[in-house]
Design brief:
The structure holds 2 protein chains of 2 kinds.
Chain A: H1 2-24, H2 34-53, H3 60-73, H4 77-104
Chain B: H1 2-16, H2 28-42, H3 60-69, H4 76-86, H5 96-100, E1 113-115, E2 120-122, H6 124-134, H7 145-157, H8 171-185, H9 195-201, E3 206-207, E4 210-211, E5 224-226, E6 231-233, H10 235-245, H11 256-267, E7 278-280
Helix pairs in contact in B: 4-7, 6-7, 8-11
Chain lengths: ~110, ~280
């Protein structure tokens, strides 16, 4: 039970950090924990895998993940979280691009 | 009132884009006709055939520099290396010439083609490697210099031949064509560019110091010696470079997706003369 509650709290915390990072660049002053960073990195990996499956991986996402992991290893948690959020955001944007482009490309085909 | 403004803006947007309001359901012949019309209308003073020289058909100053470079073509060494490789006899008997069949080595115009029995697009590089395997040799790496040299030699021998093929009335061939077409017009990467963003929508415009070439000549002149590569490389290497430039992850040379893209692009170059190998900055 405690594990479930802890997991839910961590999920909420990660969601809050993602949201804050997306709109305010971590301006909310929350102090990230290593587990939060790891969770965001995992989420970024999952979104990147989805983007790649759709044929739309972006080159910047793995770079941000690498930066996040290096910062996490150095215990620079603010930097790690910022990079992880960028990775997650770019991966999600790549997925949105793939979904949009699944039909949008047809409007660019020249016709006589 | 507000709704009227929105409706008016939507109508204006639709009316402002007649050239690009295409339909993906067109058949390949209709696509080709529309593609050719677009460039003919965009560049009325430039014959379609001239686009085989890429951006150098659109920029006189750059063309002069390029023609001077062609006095001592940087791909010449690769052609010589390719001729030497091509002349070797396979350990299992036979040669590239026997394997590639009638017209060899001037066979570039026969590729890419859809192999019905294999159910896939076969490129010149694949055909060359297939010959090697049949002759008892290991296939060459698709990103290596030897396959590029072989392709450069075949391209040189094929100069003057015309791209002239139809998409077979076969579901697999049409699917490969449609796959290449979809890739060509799909925006990708963090910069959100499609191949068509540069080479169709903005062909002839400047991107920093570079003149954007028209897609209609893009399949005629490969492989190419590119100054920034300092060697001869394939069309697929250029695909990779384009993808990375827009921050999209590139695919492997000779991947199915890139072969389908080459198939579509080459079909769009129907009627044009082969003039490879070539040199580019």
């Amino acid at each position: 039970m405690i594990t479930i509650v802890n997991g839910a709290v961590r999920t909420l915390r990660v969601a809050a950090l993602l949201l804050a990072g997306s709109f305010a660049g971590l301006a909310n002053g929350a102090q990230p924990q290593a587990a939060d960073v790891t969770a965001v990195i995992e989420q970024a990996r999952a979104s990147l895998a989805q983007a790649r499956q759709l044929g739309h991986g972006w080159t910047v996402t793995p770079d941000y993940i690498e930066v996040a992991e290096a910062a996490l290893a150095d215990k620079r948690l603010d930097d790690a979280l910022a990079a992880a959020q960028r990775a997650e955001l770019t991966a999600r944007q790549a997925v949105v691009q793939a979904e949009t482009e699944a039909s949008a490309w047809q409007g660019r085909v020249p016709s006589s | 009132m507000k709704m009227n403004r929105i409706a008016c803006a939507a109508l204006t947007a639709i009316l402002a884009c007649p050239l690009l309001a295409g339909q993906a359901v067109a058949d390949p012949a209709q696509d080709l006709a529309a593609f050719r019309d677009l460039y003919q209308n965009r560049f009325p003073d430039i014959p379609l055939a001239a686009h085989k020289d890429g951006a150098y058909a659109l920029d006189e100053a750059k063309r002069e520099q390029w023609l001077e470079m062609e006095d001592f073509p940087p791909y010449e060494i690769a052609v010589d290396d390719g001729a030497e490789l091509y002349g070797e006899t396979f350990p299992g008997g036979g040669s590239y010439g026997e394997c590639l069949g009638e017209g060899a080595p001037a066979v570039k115009q026969m590729y890419p083609r859809f192999d019905v029995s294999a159910g896939q697009v076969v490129t010149l590089q694949m055909a060359l490697n297939d010959c090697r395997v049949k002759g008892g040799l290991e296939p060459l790496a698709y990103d290596g210099e030897e396959i590029a040299a072989l392709a450069a030699y075949v391209a040189m021998e094929s100069r003057g031949e015309l791209i002239d093929f139809a998409i077979p009335d076969e579901p697999g061939a049409l699917a490969a064509y449609e796959s290449g077409k979809a890739f060509y017009y799909t925006r990708r990467g963090q910069l959100n560019f499609a191949c068509s963003s540069c080479h169709l929508q903005n062909a002839g415009m400047m991107l920093r110091a570079e003149r954007l070439s028209a897609a209609i000549g893009h399949a005629t002149h490969w492989p190419v010696y590119r100054g920034k590569w300092e060697r001869v490389g394939s069309l697929h290497r250029r695909f990779q470079e384009c993808n990375v430039q827009v921050r999209a992850e590139a695919l492997d040379e000779q991947s199915e997706t890139y072969r389908n893209l080459e198939y579509f692009l080459t079909y769009m170059n129907n009627g044009m003369e082969l003039n490879g190998p070539a040199s580019r900055k």
